[in-house]
Amino acid sequence: MGLVVQKYGGSSVADAEGIKRVAKRIVDAKKNGHQVVVVVSAMGDTTDELIDLAEQVSPMPAGREFDMLLTAGERISMALLAMAIKNLGHEAQSFTGSQAGVITDSVHNKARIIDVTPGRIRTALDEGNIAIVAGFQGVSADSKDITTLGRGGSDTTAVALAAALDAEVCEIYTDVDGVFTADPRVVKKARKIDWISSEDMLELAASGSKVLLHRCVEYARRYNIPIHVRSSFSGLPGTWVSNENPQGDAQVEHAIISGVAHDVSEAKITVVGVPDKPGEAAAIFRAIADAEINIDMIVQNVSAASTGLTDISFTLPKAEGHKAIDALEKAKSAIGFDSLRYDDQIGKISLVGAGMKTNPGVTASFFQALSDAGVNIELISTSEIRISVVTRQDDVNEAVRAVHTAFGLDSDSDEAVVYGGTGR
Asked: What is the tens place of the pLDDT at every residue in 165-178?
């Protein structure tokens, strides 16, 4: 039996009973002969409560102090979990991200891991202990300040530790039984996937699937770490995410479609009246990049012959919307556009599957399903294994259900269960 990294989300350790239940599962893994490293998130809604508290004290808290505050949530979880494990007769040691050797860059609130030096974790394991690590956090290589990794940070911590420790698997425990063909809160007949390729999971995660975050899957694919997504509320087998199918050649033909994802956390900005000449788009997106904002879909209209002007639309996280508008307004005179339009009532629906690149008709069926559901399309973006469209936010749920049914993804068995109510 080898080393296993387990990660438990906030819904799994939301209260004392949840922590005790998780402790028992961890001890069971230890009894089965595994060395166990556990990464834990803050309890329940603790992080959101700390963010609300910070906003009450300061409308724009300093990044360094904000990170110091937010990391308190995971420290509470790790200490309580270590206590619960000791009550079950096993030794456990808790470590903050910095103590565990998670080294990051210096960007507060959304730092990236640049190295993991888990010397203290290895020592704890060699001494027969279970190691409990606070997720979502690390320490800056330059300033030595505490940093946080942003959304999905605990998942990324777990995969990074699994890679550094050469673990057999990284188990991500959540409040659903695995990865489903759609969000089970929206599509009651969503079907659990037994195995999905890292490539397909990356596209689903980037398109809004919340069970795993994009950074986590990207890290796992790079270091070839198998991920097993499971529920901490049941003993059912979950979903394996890996570069290669563990069944080998038993499943020669992959499913054409892996799933349908949706995202209502984005907004759309349209830059109106842009001169249609070289360098204009570069100037627009340089202004956005300098503001450290990530963008998603981009569409440029054909310029009007009479004016020589065009419109450029792109989507981005709602949380970054006003910052992007400010950045573009400052660059308006240099770029020479007429005006800006901002729309935060949009939603994105994505169809993902490696099989679609060799199956003609997928695109036509996708748009026909949306048409039959009366859903109007505003933007379209495609890759070899993904088709994404932007619609009105109010149409998203109906669109997801229509597409899911159209591609035969509905399950004939029991409805999918979200044990904790969040899908995380």
From this structure: 999 999 999 888 99
Rounded mean pLDDT of 202-209?
92
SS3 366: helix
Residue 56 lies in a domain: yes
Q: What is the model's pTM?
A: 0.87
368-375 CB contacts, 8 Å cutoff, 24+ apart: 368/406, 369/402, 369/403, 369/405, 369/406, 369/407, 370/399, 370/402, 370/403, 372/402, 372/406, 373/398, 373/399, 373/401, 373/402, 375/399, 375/402
Q: How many distinct structural domains can be found in the chain?
A: 1
Q: Does residue 146 lie within any of the structural domains?
A: yes
Whether 408 is covered by a domain: the verdict is no
Q: Residue 277 domain-assigned?
A: no
Distances (CA, A) of 415 to 186, 262, 271, 410, 419: 11, 19, 44, 10, 12
The one-character DSSP state at 318 is G
CB count in 10 Å sphere of residue 364: 9
CATH number, residue 53: 3.40.1160.10
Containing structural domain, residue 94: 3-175
